[in-house]
Structures are given as C-alpha cells and as structure tokens.
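Here comes a specimen:
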Amino acid sequence: MSLNWKIVGAVAVAAAAAVSDGAVQSEKSNPIKANVTPTGTYSHTNHLAREKSPYLLQHAHNPVDWFPWGEPAFAKARNENKPIFLSIGYSTCHWCHVMERESFEDETTAKFLNEHFVSIKVDREERPDVDQIYMTFVQAMSGQGGWPLNVFLTPELKPFYGGTYFPPDGRYGRPSLRQVLQNISQLWETRHGDVLNSAADLHQRLESHTGREATNLLVLTAEVLRNAARQFKDDYDPKNGGFSGAPKFPRPSEPSFLLRCGTRFKDDGAVKMVLHTCERMATGGMYDQIGGGFHRYSVDAEWLVPHFEKML
C-alpha cells in the first residue's frame, strides 16, 4: 500500500506558500551576468573550486556560495541555524545548465541564497546514494522527479520541501525559484517549529514506507494488473497519443505493460492506445527522419518539437 502523502499538506507549510496565487508576485528575471572580469579572471570562486567532479567545477565560479556535500556545510547550517538548499544534477543534464544560467549566475538570486541558506551542490554521478535518498522524497511528495533536483533540508539533513526545475520567473504553472526561496525563508523564520515538526514527521514516514516496500510481498493478481492498466488509460491523450501532457516522454515500460494487459485480458482498447501513440511519435519531430532513432522527449503535447538529445 502506497504511503499517504497528504501529510505533505502539512509541509506545504512551504509548498502552499510557494505556489499559492498571489503569494508573491512573479518577478521579471534579471539579465544574466557573466562572472568573468575584463581581465579574464573570475569575479566569484566558491567552495567547489577544489572538487574533482566536472559538474561541480562547472559551478565553482557561480556567485552562489556553493559547498560540496560534507561536514563543513552541515556545521555551517547548524551553527547559523539556516535551512540547506541542496541542488543535485550532472554534467550532461540540459535543464541543470539552464537553471544555472537563469538563476545560479544571477547576482540577486545568489545574494538571497547566500544570506538565508547554506547551499550545497551534488553530482549525482559522484554521490548516487545522496541522490537516491532525496529523489525518493521528492517523488513521494510530488509524484514525479528528475534533474535538477532541488530540495530544502533542515540542518539535520531532513527534507521538508523539494522539486525539480524552478524557472527564474513564474511560468509553466511553476513558481519562480526566487518566490520559493522567499517563502521558504519566511516560513523558516515565522513557523520554524512547524517546519521542523513536519520534516521530522516526513522523515519518519518515509523511513517506514521504504522499509515496508523492501519487504512488500504484493501479489500481482489480475485485479491489480487491471487497476494499473486503468490508471494508464485514464492518462491517455486520445488525440496525440501518449500518457501525459507536455513535455512528453516515451516510457517503454508503459506501452509494454498495456500491450501485455491487452493480450492477456483481450483489451483491444489498450492495444490501440499503444499503436496510436507509436504512430504519432513516428510521424512527429520526436523521430529523427534522417539518422533514425528517437529523441529523448518532446517539449510539446503533439510530439512535434524534440528535446535534442538521443537516448540509447
């Protein structure tokens, strides 16, 4: 049985404030400023400068005062009683680089982060253990995950709010990073006890949930399989195919599962959904008409404009 994450309504202590209408007016993003002086030297250097990870070194000259994952950052958070802003990514992550250009190179955003948070950068390829812990939290909280992964922690490393890409201003139905930072900071100051209690409760529930999942002896009965198929079919786009809105990712496990269910339970509708999805993908921009193969995902609901990255 899946964990009831309505408790995150309590931690929407942070979430509700960040996404509520009118909580903070959407701001225009500032022009991005390069952190290189006319003499060719860097105007900023942070604690990542001595790291070996190429991804961390890419952020070594951000105006954000990044720390690597480790005790110096944890001690600073405890001593100054500040929340931790943990950002996880990897070198070939497109949206990680977009968020760096839009927000982490922005002097105003960096100034706010440096004053109110202890900021930690993690390369998921270097620390997959850290990535797995906090990805599990964000997926359980929001139902989805991805990179960049941005999570807010107490100084004891317990998460209380998180998400993936935050734009520099409100768009795509998402709050801006600065909106989220301002609201989290305000909540940390005015409802500190609530945030700590929610983080402790979420931590305990997540541990309990993952412990149960490890020993879960769920029997895949016909009814369980039919119910899973119904959930996929509820998300189906009858016009364009696929099982979500934009952006659309081709997830092989979903059509494979529906094809097997369609064959096993003689469900022609499930099979037609898969075939229609494949046809729409093959006739759209997702498919490389010259080199063959499919790009990673479509940025729109029509499979028209691909994200130009091929997956093996």
User: Anything to note?
Assistant: The chain has eleven helices and seven strands. The beta strands are 67-68, 84-89, 118-123, 149-153, 159-163, 295-298, 306-310. The CA atoms of residues 58 and 116 lie 23 Å apart.
